[in-house]
Amino acid sequence: MDDLLRLDREHVWHPYTSFPPAVPVHAVARAEGVRLTLTDGRELVDGMSSWWAAIHGYRHARLDQAIRAQLDDMAHVMFGGLTHEPAVRLAVRLTELTGLDRVFLADSGSVAVEVAIKMAVQATGRTRLFTVRGGYHGDTFACMSVCDPVNGMHHLFTGALAQHVFAPPPPLGYEAVPDQDYLDEVAGLLARHAHELAAIIVEPVVQGAGGMRFYHPGYLRKFRELADEHGLLLIADEIATGFGRTGEMFGCDHAGVRPDIMCVGKALTGGYLTLAATLCTAEVAERIGVLMHGPTYMGNPLATAVAGASLELLAERPWREEVKAIEAALVDGLAAAEPYAEDVRVLGAIGVIEAHEPVDVQRIQDVVMEHGVWLRPFGKLIYTMPPYACGPEELAMVTEAMVAAARTLRTP
């Protein structure tokens, strides 16, 4: 395995790193349940759900079987002019879950957002978008243009990106009373630009990779009201928040609103294969006509088959109770980190320790791995989004590891 890691260092460029990476890369030999086994024999509880996707854990018999069974029929067929049962059944299930009538199957979350932006532009004839700072919507160019332009990870590309309209981030705190001054500021800013805007795009209730910020559902309701008032579309980026992660099936459910366009991904296939979807109302689809997008692997049978099985499994398992149990364990377990942190916050199956300054990623990873846990900190954050299959023992390991990492932080 030393040879494998040497070859990795010589040839493989990993995400969000320089080449070669400044932080060590660890080789995985096997993943099963909620645990990763490294090639050196160490076993780690995966507190990241493979970047928030593997909600059922690894090597789930139902999901494994769905892929094996589909492989006996076909691995792929073009979606232009052809269709197949796994894709159709998945689309129907998504419409049932979301209340949105039309489904465009995409390759990844970033592509789903690109498609959503295309939908908004084609449906309205306008090209600018309204969003909030602190957001993250993906790594491709249209997606980067609606990520936080100052503090986000894509600020290096500012001069090459389309210029959109940004409001301040929603005030922090899921349970905090909405700030009327903020609502008035957003309303005024949007009114000044409404004539040139196609849509409002936001992450419902949780701003994910932009900082793991939780905000009151009242702000999302206001975005819906403003979109209606000015004849704009509302795009909900549910790629991180969809399929139960926040305690509701979708982030929009916290506010009781339905967007005009919704993006889903990540947990859609249970972490097995890359797949996403962009959904919209029938009214939006009629305004668009021919949507100018068509990925080569759109509607891949293996991916749609396992996605269908994952959604069936989610419907059958008591995911609400599981997420509530995770939330309770995170609240209890992370409380000990408060003296060392700027903030500790939990919502659903998301637990966050925010440091006073950017963390040393390698040092934090060394600490949590010593405690038998895999996490991927970034910026000022040590956070977890564990699989729903995590039990009390695994959750205790995760929170103990996070608290141990927090104790290494410098405090003012």
UniProtKB/TrEMBL annotation:
Main location: cytoplasm
Function: Catalyzes the transfer of the alpha-amino group from S-adenosyl-L-methionine (SAM) to 7-keto-8-aminopelargonic acid (KAPA) to form 7,8-diaminopelargonic acid (DAPA). It is the only aminotransferase known to utilize SAM as an amino donor.
GO CC term, one of those recorded: cytoplasm
Protein name per its UniProtKB record: Adenosylmethionine-8-amino-7-oxononanoate aminotransferase
Domain of life: Bacteria
UniProt-listed HAMAP family: BioA
Compartments where found: Cytoplasm
Major enzyme class: transferase
Family designation: Belongs to the class-III pyridoxal-phosphate-dependent aminotransferase family. BioA subfamily.
Binding site for substrate: W51, Y136, K266, G294, R376
Recorded catalytic activity of this chain's protein: (8S)-8-amino-7-oxononanoate + S-adenosyl-L-methionine = S-adenosyl-4-methylsulfanyl-2-oxobutanoate + (7R,8S)-7,8-diammoniononanoate
EC assignment: 2.6.1.62
Pfam families reported for this sequence: Aminotran_3 (PF00202)
Signal peptide region: none
Record keyword 4Fe-4S present: no
Gene (name only): bioA
Gene Ontology biological process terms from the UniProt entry: biotin biosynthetic process
Quaternary structure and interacting proteins, as annotated: Homodimer.
Site (Participates in the substrate recognition with KAPA and in a stacking interaction with the adenine ring of SAM): Y16
